[in-house]
């Protein structure tokens, strides 16, 4: 182990932005769901050090914050403190092969990012697949299924590598979807129907944009419920719908109430008569504006606790005596990003469509891919924006949107996705709708 040099990882190059404190470093690491932020630089001809069980060595950063860190510096002199960011893309590829993080909920070492030099990762794919299965509690019924999923996992490692090259400002790697083919992922975890917004949809009025705050987040104001999980059901559209109405209802009543997605899955069959195959169809997909229309006609949505989510299509059990939130009106927001921001600030979280091609491998950071289709296939919730999401590859700060997803807190940044603003990346500006809630008098 004496031939391996520990290198601290922070946010880019010291002489460009200045060193960061260990505490800031730990905060950043925690945002990625991990504590370990160390790499080991290989000396020519050596093998990587291991710990029992064959895992590559990975120290927990918090234990190195004090005297132990100083002791390691003394034992293993650091010739060049590279400050490169959790995406590692400014590290010399020829010298680095492994980026492993210690998961904060498990003692298993899990690959959290696939960097361009991944040949070693593919050679150790079975070991990493075992770590993946433990972390996400994956089991397979037969040896044949296990072998098939291992093959899919290897393909997704290569896919994450491609995504990392195309989307270098984000972190791409192993997620809970790493044993699914792209087709399975689209069928079971997306669900936005590829439809146009109806031509007669009400357009949101133009709002003033001169005094918009530089940063804004409805989570800080209590208007966003906890991250939910749609499971293996193409019901993303229902979560986007409830999220927007939950926020609007908060603005109208001052109370945050979690609303029922299952009511929409079971009961909403609203259609656009001008578009064939446009009906909301439970786990087979739907559209947020159609769901708002249904909610307006039905008289509202009930609480989640009164109509719990099952993740399967069922018989409608809506009880209109238990309505917790009603739609007053809804409208479509223009493609202008300042207008989107203005509507977000004034009206609450917005229902948004997006192309989710990079989301299957997304781990964290600000996603700003060089290439992304604008064919929308996933419904999400826009809850805020930031002015300065650091993008070291592009050598500048990038403004970004904050997206609430519906794949549970173990995905992305505690269930959230950041995507850069300004260029309609992945179609994020193409289908945005806002809803207003009617006040319900309490008897």
TrEMBL record:
Residues 212-436 form the Peptidase C1A papain C-terminal domain. Residues 129-185 form the Cathepsin propeptide inhibitor domain. The keyword Disulfide bond applies. It comes from Protea cynaroides. Keywords: Disulfide bond, Glycoprotein, Hydrolase, Protease, Signal, Thiol protease, Zymogen. Belongs to the peptidase C1 family. It comes from the Eukaryota. Pfam families: Inhibitor_I29, Peptidase_C1. One of its GO terms (biological process) is proteolysis. This is Uncharacterized protein. GO terms for molecular function: cysteine-type peptidase activity. InterPro entries: Papain-like_cys_pep_sf, Pept_asp_AS, Pept_cys_AS, Pept_his_AS, Peptidase_C1A, Peptidase_C1A_C, Peptidase_C1A_papain-like, Prot_inhib_I29. One of its GO terms (cellular component) is lytic vacuole.
């Amino acid at each position: 182990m004496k031939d391996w040099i520990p290198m601290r990882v922070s946010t880019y190059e010291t002489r460009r932005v200045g060193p960061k404190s260990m505490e800031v470093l730990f905060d950043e690491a925690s945002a990625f769901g991990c504590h370990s932020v160390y790499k080991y630089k290989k000396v020519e001809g050596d093998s990587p050090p291991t710990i029992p069980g064959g895992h590559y060595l990975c120290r927990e950063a918090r234990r190195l914050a004090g005297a132990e860190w100083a002791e390691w510096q003394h034992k293993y002199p650091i010739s060049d403190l590279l400050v490169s960011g959790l995406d590692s893309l400014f590290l010399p590829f020829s010298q680095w092969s492994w980026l492993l993080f210690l998961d904060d909920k498990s003692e298993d070492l899990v690959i959290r990012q696939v960097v361009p030099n991944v040949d070693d990762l593919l050679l150790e794919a079975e070991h990493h697949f075992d770590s993946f299965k433990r972390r996400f509690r994956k089991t397979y019924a037969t040896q044949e299924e296990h072998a098939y999923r291992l093959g899919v996992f290897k393909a997704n490692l290569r896919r994450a590598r491609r995504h990392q090259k195309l989307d270098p400002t984000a972190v791409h790697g192993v997620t809970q979807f790493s044993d699914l083919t792209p087709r399975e992922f689209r069928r079971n975890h997306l669900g936005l129907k590829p439809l146009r917004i109806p031509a007669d949809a009400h357009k949101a009025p133009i709002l003033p944009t001169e005094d918009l705050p530089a940063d804004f987040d409805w989570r800080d104001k209590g208007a966003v419920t906890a991250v939910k999980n749609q499971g293996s059901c193409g019901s993303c559209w229902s979560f986007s719908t409830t999220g927007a109405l939950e926020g609007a209802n908060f603005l109208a009543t001052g109370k945050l109430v979690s609303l029922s997605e299952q009511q929409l899955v079971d009961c909403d069959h609203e259609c656009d008569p001008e578009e064939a195959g446009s009906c909301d169809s439970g786990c087979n997909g739907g559209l947020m504006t159609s769901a708002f229309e249904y909610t307006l006609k039905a008289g509202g949505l009930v609480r989640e606790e009164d109509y719990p989510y099952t993740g399967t299509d069922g018989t409608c059990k809506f009880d209109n005596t238990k309505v917790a939130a009603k739609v007053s009106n809804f409208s479509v927001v223009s493609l202008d990003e300042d207008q989107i921001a203005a509507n977000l600030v004034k009206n609450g979280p917005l229902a948004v469509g997006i192309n989710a091609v990079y989301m299957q491998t997304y781990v964290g950071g600000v996603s700003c891919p060089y290439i992304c289709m604008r064919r929308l296939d996933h419904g999400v919730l826009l809850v805020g924006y930031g002015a300065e999401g650091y993008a070291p590859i592009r050598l500048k700060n990038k403004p970004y949107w904050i997206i609430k997803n519906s794949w549970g807190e173990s995905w992305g940044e505690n269930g959230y996705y950041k995507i850069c603003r300004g260029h309609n990346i992945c179609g994020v500006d193409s289908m945005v709708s806002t809803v207003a809630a009617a006040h319900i008098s309490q008897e």
